Amino acid sequence: MSTDSEMEKPVGGEAASPAPKVPPPPNGGLHAWIQVLGAHFLFFNSWGIVNSFGLFQTYYETTLLKSRTSSEISWIGTFQAFLLVASGLAAGPIFDRGHFRALVIVGTFLSVFGMMMTSLATEYWQLFLAQGLCVGLGTGCLFLPSVAIVATYFTTKRALAIGIVAAGGSIGSVIYPIVFYQLQPRLGFPWATRILAFIILGTLSVSILVLRTRVPPAGKSRAIFDLAAFRSATFDLYSLGLFLSFVGLYVPIFYIILWAEKHVHVDAGLSFYLLALLNGSSTFGRIIPGLLADRFGPFELTIVCTVLAAVFAYVAIVIDTLGGLVVFAILYGFVSGAVVSLPSAVIATLVPDMSLVGTWMGMSFCFAGTGILVGNPIAGTIIDVEGDRFAGGFIFSGSLVMAAGALSIAARYLHLSEKRRAR
Fold first, then answer.
1. CB count, 10 Å around CB of 402?
2. Where in the cell is it found (predicted)?
3. Three-state secondary-structure class, residue 384
4. Were both Cys, which of 114, 153, 355, 423 would link to 32 (CB 3.0–4.6 Å)?
C-alpha cells in the first residue's frame, strides 16, 4: 500500500511530462477547515434532500398520490438517491480534470430547478421527472465533490473531516422535513416546497464562493472507469458490500413514519419527529465514528457499524411501543450515518494515486447507488402498509446489510494481506 505522500504523485506512464509538485496535505488550518464548511453544505443539500424523502413518501401516500402503491411512490425517492450516488461515475473524472466548480454550479441549478418544478407537480410522472430525475442529477453533481475535495486536504484527520462534511446530510435531513412539515399546512405544498428550494440556493452559494481544489488536475483525459481498480480484490469486495448495504439500509428510514402510525398507532404529528430524530442521531453517527476511524481505521469502524445496522433492523421486528421506536430511531440513525459517511474514507485509503480519488469514489459509489435504486421498491412489494405487515421488509433489510458486513470483513482481510506483501 502506498504512503500518503506517495499517493500525491502521478502514476507512472500517465503523463509525458512531470506533474507540478504538490505540497503535503495541511491536515488543518483555516483554509482547510473552510473547505470542510463548503463541502458540508454540499452534503447538506445532497444527502439532506434524499434522506428527507420519508416525509414526502408519507405525504404522497396520504394526500397527493393516494391511488399509487407504496412501491410505486418509493421509486421517486430511490431513483433520486440512485442518481445522487451513481452520478459519481461521470462526476469523478470531471472532478479529477479540475472542473469541480462547474459541477457545483450545475448541481445547484438542477437541484433548485427540480424543487421548483416539484412544487408545481400534481401527477406521478411530473414528480418523478422533477424530484426523481432533476433533483437526483443535481444532488449527484454535488455529492462526489463534497467528499473528494476534502480527502485531498487531510490524511491524519481525513475520516474526521469527512465525518463533519457528511454530518451536513444529517442536519439537512432534520431541517428540511421540519421546514416542510411546519409550512405545508399553512402555505400548502407548492410554497412549502419552493421555500426548500430557496434554502438550497442560499446554502449552496456559500459552497460556490469558498471551495477550492488543492491537487492539480490530471494531465490528460481519463475514462470514466479506471480498470486498474477492478484488479484489486479489496476494491471489488468492498464495492460489492456497498451495493448490498445500500439495498437494505434505507428501508427503515423510508418507512419509519408509516411504521410508527400503522403498527404502533403513533399520532401523525408525533410520528414525523421520529424521522427527524433518526436523522439527527445520524449527525453524531457521521462525526464520532469518523473521529474514532482516524485512530482505529475506517475499515474497522465500517464493519462494526454495518453489522450493528443489520442487528437493529432485525430487532425492529419486535418493537411495538413508542419508547422502543424512539430508541430504535436513535441507534439506527447513529449506525446508518456511519455506514453512509465512512466509505469515502475507506476508498481514499485504497486508491494508489490521489489524483484518481474522484474516479475511484465514483466507481464504488455507483455500486451503492444501484443498491439504493432496487432496495426500497423491492421492500415496498414485501411490506403491506395497510395490512400492518412490516416484518418482512425489516428482515430483508437486515439480511442484506449483514451480508455487506461479511464482505467488508473479507475486504479488510485482503487489504491487510496486500499491505504485508508490499512491505
1. 19
2. Membrane
3. strand
4. 153
Written as tens digits, the pLDDT of the chain (423 aa) is: 333 443 344 333 444 444 456 666 667 678 888 888 999 999 899 888 887 887 788 788 888 888 888 778 888 988 898 888 777 677 777 877 778 888 999 999 999 999 999 999 989 999 999 999 999 999 989 887 877 778 778 777 776 787 788 788 888 888 998 898 889 889 999 999 999 999 999 999 999 998 887 766 655 555 566 677 777 788 888 889 999 999 999 888 878 888 888 888 888 778 878 888 888 888 888 788 877 877 788 888 899 999 999 999 999 999 988 999 999 999 999 999 888 878 877 887 777 766 666 677 777 777 888 888 888 788 888 887 778 788 899 999 999 999 999 999 998 888 787 777 766
Residue recorded with cell 499517493: 7
- Rounded to whole angstroms, the Cα distance separating 69 from 71 reads 5
Grid coordinates in use for 103? Answer: 459541477
d(CA 398, CA 218): 41
Report which of 20, 38, 2 is spatially closest to residue 155, judged by C-alpha positions.
2
Q: Tell me the C-alpha distance between 168 and 159, whole Å.
A: 15
List 347's β-bridge partners, or say none. none
Return the number of other C-beta atoms located less than 10 Å from residue 122's C-beta: 10
d(CA 252, CA 394): 7
Q: Record the cell numbers describing residue 299, joined without a space.
A: 475499515
d(Cα 272, Cα 270) in Å, to the nearest integer?
5
Give CA–CA dist 330/386, Å, rounded. Answer: 26
Is 149 within 8 Å of 213 (Cβ atoms)?
yes
Q: Is 389 helix (H, G, I), strand (E, B) or coil?
A: strand
